[in-house]
Fold:
Amino acid sequence: MELMLDTANLEELKTGMEFYPVDGVTTNPSILKNDLPFDYYAHLKAIKELCGDKRTFHVQLGAENWQDMLEEAREIWEKLGKDVYLKVPVTQDGVKAIKEIKGLGGRVTATCIYHTIQGIMAIHAGADYLAPYCNRMSDKDIDYIDVISQLRELIDRDGYEAKILAASFKNMTQVTQAIYAGAHTVTVQPALLKSALHSPLVTAAAEVFTKDYNRVREGK
Structure:
């Protein structure tokens, strides 16, 4: 499996990459706006530099129709390089854009997936990653576990190379459920990861071991 950080905050990314086994970074305009003001491409370049050669970087397109998506894709390639994964919403225009971007040798993360059929269309259009929005789906009484399981079964059965990148989490239970449902990848906010690793139960157990360790070392 892969772990990605869902943030555009440079300090969060530096800390997260230092402490966690991070495989990539995902961003979108709603995340980016939290760190305004900044120069858009300068900020994205800074994130990409933190990712280096071993981590993937996923950038959301803001256009709505496929022609503008393609124009934006070319601009991103010019500014950031063609190894960036372009996040494309799976709308009718989005599916067309995925086909066009892949035809030009680009990389795609299909987003805004709420239904299995969206994932199927994205897979067939050539998307590299599929991003179901787990908590948002749950809020709309859509079973994200079932959607992830169905897409994973299709990928494995027919030998597609697409990976499921589960996103939009409210708690770590949703994260682990997505992984066990078949997600290849999860993208998680750093604060959510930190909360799981700093729970009172974990902290209390670690403190007891430290206290007893010191007594053992002292021999009394």
Summary: The chain has a mean pLDDT of 95. The first helix runs from residue 10 to 19.
